[in-house]
Amino acid sequence: MKITIKALLLTSALALVTGPALAQSQGDWTIGVGVATVNPKSGNGTLAGGEADIDDDVSFTFTFEYFIRDNLGIELLAATPFEHDISIAGIGAAGSTKHLPPTLSVNYHFPNASKWKPYVGAGINYTTFFEEESPLGTLELDDSWGVSLQAGVDYQISDAGSLRLNVRWFDIDTDATLNGASIGTAEIDPFLFGVAYVHRF
């Protein structure tokens, strides 16, 4: 994970110093279609008296971005559902859940003349959990609001098309109940690693 982030930041830094600046223009908009993996942090809080562990998952992602100023865009992230198994130390398999992570971000795209075009962004994430299942009873996870940060780089493959690599971090905490009783807070705080094709209009 650390190697991936360092490589992405190094690529972004190199792109910044290559050639004269070229702008992403006000009024442009893009659509991105890709795939991403969500990796919750190690150690996801304490549930029912034991340390919780939430596993990874891969799903399709979609982005829509509109440039409100040159180089400055507002982006919406959507995805097909991610599904995660939940285990608890001392108990074992404790359940599973699906979630959707719509995220609204403001992104700054660094202008340059290279085919490598880096950007950074920050925004608000809303995570909704659904179809919770557990062999222990009725499991419920509350929806979550939190900040989101990202860094990425686009590699231009045509006048309108680019391949994108990006890393996002989400602040996701959810209160969990089992059979109506509180069992603690799951601290998920995942990284998302994505690759996508982005088309500019």
Largest sheet strand order: 1-4-5-8-9-11-12-15
Roughly how many Å is the radius of gyration?
Answer: 19 Å
The fraction of residues assigned to DSSP E strands is: over 45%
What is the tally of helical segments? 1
Shape: elongated
Query: Biggest sheet: strands, sense, closure?
Result: 8 strands, antiparallel, barrel
User: Under the CATH scheme, which class?
Assistant: Mainly Beta
Looking at the overall shape, the CATH architecture is Beta Barrel
Order of helices and strands: HEEEEEEEEEEEEEEE
Q: How confident overall, as mean pLDDT?
A: 91
SS-based structural class? mainly beta
Count of all domains: 1
Number of strands: 15
In whole angstroms, the N-to-C terminal distance is 33 Å
- Assembly form of the protein: single chain
Q: Flag low-confidence runs.
A: 2-21
Helix percent reads under 10%
Could you please say which CATH topology applies here?
A: Porin
